[in-house]
Amino acid sequence: MNQRCGWCGNEKIYQDYHDQEWGEPLYDDQALFELFILETLQAGLSWITVLRKRDAYRAALDNFDAEKIAQYDEAKYEALMQHPELIKNKLKMHAIIHNAQCYLELKAKHGSFSDWLWQYVDHQPIINGFGRLSDVPVKTEISDKLSKDLKKLGFKFVGSVTIYAFMQAMGMVNDHVSNCFKYQPNH
Predict the structure, then answer these.
(1) Is residue 43 assigned to a domain?
(2) What is the 3-state secondary structure (H, E, C) of the chain?
(3) Fewer Cβ in 10 A, N or C end of the chain?
(4) Catalytic hit among 14, 22, 47, 57
């Protein structure tokens, strides 16, 4: 059996996410937007709570189509709030719509969400080599700066801790611990 990072526990959904997605460099704007929205939903919750609802969010949010989400009206918002599988948080639900609008503005101005994000690490993943899960930070100077810049652009639920989790998930930072089979110091 492969040794994994301790945070993913014994649940298959968590292990599959760890093994196939977490820490893998992601450059596709659409995939990044989906992950970004999911990470902002995590604030104050466990990641597995959001992960279990990912398919429901894909279905409810037009497959994370930012153009469509940015146009959602009050009736659509209310329908989402009544959806039995989604997290019932009014501020987060409004933030999904608002962040889709901010995302489209960022893309219109900078061309690519991916390029804009990856510039914070000179377009190369940061490969950390922490020996223990307890050594992994919850935020860094880079996540502080990215969080601040996202807030300036109007994004919501983008505190530094949330943004660092996003950076880890999208592979901008590889924080697989050194005894994890996914840790690859030469990449």
Answers:
(1) yes
(2) CCCCCHHHCCCHHHHHHHHHCCCCCCCCHHHHHHHHHHHHHHCCCCHHHHHHCHHHHHHHCHHHCHHHHCCCCHHHHHHHHHCCCCCCCHHHHHHHHHHHHHHHHHHHHHCCHHHHHHHHHCCCCEECCCCCHHHCCCCCHHHHHHHHHHHHCCCCCCCHHHHHHHHHHCCCEECCCCCCCCCCCCC
(3) N
(4) 47
